[in-house]
Specification:
765 residues; Alpha-Beta Plaits; DHBP synthase; seven-stranded mixed β-sheet; binds zinc ion; binds fe (iii) ion
Length: 765
Amino acid sequence: MKQRIAIVIHGAVQGVGFRPYVYRLATDLGLPGWVANTPAGVLIEADGEKPLLDLFLLRLQRDVPPRASIHSLEFSILDPGDFAEFTIRESDQSGPVTAPVLPDIATCPDCLREIRDPGNRRYRYPFTNCTNCGPRFSIITSLPYDRPNTTMRAFAMCPACRKEYGDPGDRRFHAQPNACPVCGPHCEAWDQAGRLLASHEEALRTAERALREGAIVALKGLGGFQLLADAGNRDAVERLRRVKRREEKPFALMFPSLDAVESACECSDLERRLLRSPESPIVLLKRKQNPRTPAIDPGVAPGNPTLGIMLPYTPLHHLLLGDLDRPVVATSGNVTDEPICTDERESLTRLHGMADLFLVHDRPIHRHVDDSVVRVLLGREQVLRRARGYAPLPIRLGRELPDLLAVGPHLKNTVAVSRGTSIVVSQHIGDLETVQSHHAFTQASQSLQDLYRTKPVAVVSDLHPDYLSTRHARTLGLPVISVQHHVAHVASCMGENGLEPPVLGVSWDGTGYGTDGTIWGSEFILLKHGEARRFGALMPFPLPGGDAAVKEPRRSAAGLLFAMMGSDGFARLDLPPLRAFRMHELGLLSTMLRQRVNTPLCTSAGRLFDAVASLLGIRQICAFEGQAAMELEFTAQSVLPGRPYPFQWEQAGAAQAPNAPVFADWRPMVSGILEDLAQGTATGEIASRFHATLAAIITAAAQRAGIPRVVLTGGCFQNRLLTEATVARLLQEGFQPSWHQRIPPNDGGVALGQIAAVSYLNLLR
Ligand code: ZN
Ligand code: ZN
Ligand code: FE
């Protein structure tokens, strides 16, 4: 099946024969399409079969012309463009410069060679960089991007560095953060009280020794602090969990080399490319069944068949990991739920009691930028957390937009601004629950407007009246446009895939505020020109305890059972969720359910996952958001695709309005699950059949809606099995499914969707 690949490249790719190079490569492979040089970067589109497009992508990066260098490459797989031949399009220099600021770029091979060369003046220097690599977004204070407008302004270049900086033939010509051991930043090792233990080379050695001995080291990295610990040391890993107050959520790892990664995990070509890319994200990889070395303590990612792994991406990381020659846990330097810490003085208080040693430096970080997280899904890259290496590169919407500011949702917050036909999404900010995160949120939204010089004519927020982001939006003195959470998810997925209405949006997540004031989370949204309508959802069920149910899947299960059989029926059952409550708790619960006290109705797919995980005895109480659903997915993964359970459709109310939503009645499915449980069917098989049922429900909804284009969005589509099963089934039935690639399916994508929705729905009048 033919597809189109759409690539955006930033870097030293102008005036170095890059377009002819792309042309030769594409015509060699027989791919029709085009390449153009624009203010938004070098754009390439090509049609072909997927394996050929993969080859094109690999060779495109492998064989770049000598003086060209790719600083960032993002691509999406889209519908074919029906091109006749490959052409070099005239440069179009009109339109605003949509990438005035580049993301931070991982250390390039040339710089790496120099720090490993004892004869080089930058031998073992942790802060070297050149025009092809180094810090950008994290150090820029204002535009234009010149040294005085970066946090490097405090360092005066020595004569040798100045010469490189001024020489057009040098790799460091106008490299703004250019530095060397004589004139640039240096590192120091501090104890918990901030006392100097060692500096320069000796600081690195001190940190390395400490890690070997099982210490936790707070490292001031590129976009903020990381907490490091030897990944093979059980005590260190356990202690890190305690101090971070992070019980079971998987930790990310940094490996010393690609070889080490490949001995621990399965790695496809695309995954290898991602690990070594200029973006250098955390890549979620499948663990090998019987890994050889290196040892990874089970506490790093308990019960998880995948590991989140990155390679060193600054000279400092390269030196430290190279000396250590073993993988380390590298988790963000913060207390769980707070934004990442960026300042070394502040770190002494904010990370107090968490680290044994602080490895810091004197190059200020102007902007916090977390490590990005990606994975490969259905043969394509999917960004799950968009930050370092990706932010603040724009997403082209292909529609002319007014200047808007979107303040995003409450959890996994990002903000966004529009400019021309593009939308720029901020780096990951996090959950807006603490003073620090509120501060990070206001800063990020202001600095995005400053950098892109936008003057918003309106601000877009969630429909939820009490979200901190919504309240902030109302203080800005601009018209506020509200966009319903699940509509924003749908518009987000449409936007990054360049889709036009009509589509059927399948917007499945944990929680969103519905237009009827109830909790939504399994919405089918019919998005047509100028209109978004709730076509349907899963049948609502009560959630005893409201928000408390997020942490306790057993509550969702109780709500589900109550909805099916009332309080008399469910209290008599002998099932894992009910056994997980004490007698008097169960009494209280059924009173709450009967009298509808603190028991909101929801259509949350996330809570349905929780409920089923609870019924199967997989998990009653979560240590982190989404844990039960993840474990349910892992349980199902080992089993071949299951047969769907039965379900039926029910239209709301007896007297039907013509556009009343239809609800997928899951009760026949839950009855089937209970029967299987009673017969002792393996939980893996039940879990697999549950996933298959959801895919069947989505496909049936698409058939009822009769719209070919189906858009899969929302946090539930981080579930690999659900996404793969749904896409397969939709394709089988002749639909055209789309899913997220460059923008997270979770709430990190909502800000983009808020702006896109204004355009699709014509909300600015
Ligand atoms: Zn470099
Ligand atoms: Zn120098
Ligand atoms: Fe959501």
